[in-house]
């Protein structure tokens, strides 16, 4: 494959889905109440709550059942309780919204630095990052997890701090991963033509969006990933690990 850079998804690609679902997300549910209580006056927390509030108000015009966040004029206890209901509801739907992902990234900071969480990476990831970067390829991350959450995962990973291998990080601030415009924006931002980018992901909807933007794609079949249907298998190449990826 003649490519200049790699664009990597995280969950289901570099990292197991079970790490995200069984460790990262439960951490948020477990700690949210005490995190809000202890950090309530921090500007970062107030910004996160405001972003969630705006998102909830916007969502309420488009769909039913979205738990709204109490007005900033209410008591902290009441607002915090509405934030907990809202965050749990959004996590139940596994929504990839920026406001939720920002808050999660801020909360995981403490979990990673205390050692309570360590970022999972498949065994082949570190070796591939070394090989690709030493042969002149640039490697970028594009994940629905916030840029801060991405950096924490690779900084505190089971293979140590791997941040040095990345030339940049993208999250949903550039657009959703299921929209082809996001890949065009990334291509512009890194000044690499779409057909010289190889995007690795586990999700067909992301593969289709990237492909529509002219980006090359391979789908990862990792343990625990959702099975791929025949149409997807016909359309995209698959690989089981990064060692199978041959680059020129
Ligand atoms: C890297 S942050 C933790 C994972 C996460 O919240 C997420 O949404 C991962 O989505 P991806 O786009 O990497 O599949
Ligand atoms: Mg993924």
Automatic annotation (TrEMBL):
Q: Does the keyword Transferase apply?
A: no
The question of whether Transcription regulation is a record keyword is answered with: no
Specify the domain of life of the species encoding this protein. Eukaryota
InterPro entries, alphabetically? Enolase-ppase_E1, ENOPH1_eukaryotes, HAD-like_sf, HAD-SF_hydro_IA, HAD_sf
> What are the required cofactors?
Mg(2+)
Primary enzyme class: hydrolase
Q: Any idea which UniProt keywords this protein has?
A: Amino-acid biosynthesis, Cytoplasm, Hydrolase, Magnesium, Metal-binding, Methionine biosynthesis, Nucleus
What quaternary arrangement does the UniProt entry report?
Answer: Monomer.
Recorded protein name is: Enolase-phosphatase E1
Q: Specify the species.
A: Daphnia pulex (Water flea)
Q: What is the lineage of its organism?
A: Eukaryota, Metazoa, Ecdysozoa, Arthropoda, Crustacea
């Amino acid at each position: 494959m003649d490519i200049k850079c790699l664009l990597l998804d995280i969950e289901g690609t570099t990292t197991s889905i079970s790490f995200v679902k069984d460790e990262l997300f439960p951490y948020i549910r477990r700690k949210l109440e005490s995190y809000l209580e202890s950090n309530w006056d921090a500007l970062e927390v107030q910004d996160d709550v405001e972003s969630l509030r705006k998102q909830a108000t916007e969502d309420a015009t488009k769909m039913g059942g979205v738990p709204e966040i109490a007005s900033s004029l209410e008591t902290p206890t009441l607002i915090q309780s509405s934030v907990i209901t809202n965050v749990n509801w959004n996590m139940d739907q596994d929504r990839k919204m920026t406001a939720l992902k920002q808050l999660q990234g801020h909360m995981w900071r403490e979990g990673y630095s205390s050692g309570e969480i360590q970022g999972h990476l498949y065994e082949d990831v570190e070796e591939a990052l070394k090989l690709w970067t030493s042969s002149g390829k640039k490697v970028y991350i594009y994940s629905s997890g916030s840029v801060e959450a991405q950096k924490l995962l690779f900084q505190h990973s089971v293979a140590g701090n791997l941040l040095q291998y990345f030339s940049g990080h993208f999250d949903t601030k550039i657009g959703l991963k299921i929209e082809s415009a996001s890949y065009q924006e990334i291509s512009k931002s890194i000044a690499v033509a779409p057909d010289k980018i190889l995007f690795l992901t586990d999700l067909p909807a992301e593969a289709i969006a990237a492909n529509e933007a002219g980006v090359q794609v391979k789908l990862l079949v990792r343990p625990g990933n959702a099975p791929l249907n025949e149409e997807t298998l016909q359309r995209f190449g698959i690989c089981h690990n990064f060692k199978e990826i041959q680059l020129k």
